Amino acid sequence: MTTHDIRTSETCRPTGPPVDVVTWRTCRLHEAGFPWALADSVARTSTDLHELLQLVDAGCPPQLAARILAPIDEATGPW
Fold this sequence. Notes:
Elements: H1 21-31, H2 36-43, H3 49-57, H4 62-69
Helix pairs in contact: 1-2, 3-4
């Protein structure tokens, strides 16, 4: 079964007041190539966003980067 996320780039470019941190992290990860579901899952963890983006910038696939940097207590997460 295929699911389609209804989020768009407009979700990440609000015209009003600043968005919350989880939303910002989710959007930043999606802009870096993460699928919405993975971006949302990772954004809610304590994973270091800068280290994660460095791995992806160096060519590491998003799912592998998330797995590499997953905190030990969250290592069994959905990614």
